[in-house]
Design the sequence.
């Protein structure tokens, strides 16, 4: 006989998984449908991270109820995502900025000036 989590925990986990999947789908659609590189940064970074938090919350609720103890190891994935997503987003933004400057896009600000301020 195998142990099972209570029905309300199963429903909570299922709802969180569905919500997290919808967040991930929204992030993927935003990545595909938006045209410019700078616009494509936000949907995957924000929506997919929210989706990962929801799915991790579902896993936390389910495995904590199953083991009858807090399953804190589940939080390792969203914590690592919270660390790596901003770094990768910054790198993608810098690459997009570099590409836009190479084609002389008038909407992109000029690079910061390195050295002493003018007039000194």
Sequence:
């Amino acid at each position: 006989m195998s142990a099972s989590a209570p029905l309300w925990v199963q429903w909570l986990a299922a709802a969180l998984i569905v919500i997290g999947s919808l967040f991930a789908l929204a992030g993927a659609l935003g990545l595909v449908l938006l045209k410019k590189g700078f616009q494509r940064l936000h949907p995957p970074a924000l929506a997919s991270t929210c989706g990962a938090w929801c799915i991790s919350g579902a896993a936390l609720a389910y495995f904590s109820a199953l083991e009858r103890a807090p399953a804190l190891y589940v939080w390792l994935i969203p914590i690592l995502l919270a660390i790596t997503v901003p770094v990768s987003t910054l790198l993608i933004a810098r690459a997009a900025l570099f590409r836009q400057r190479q084609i002389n896009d008038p909407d992109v600000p000029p690079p910061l000036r390195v050295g002493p301020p003018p007039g000194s």
User: Anything to note?
Assistant: The longest helix spans residues 7-33.
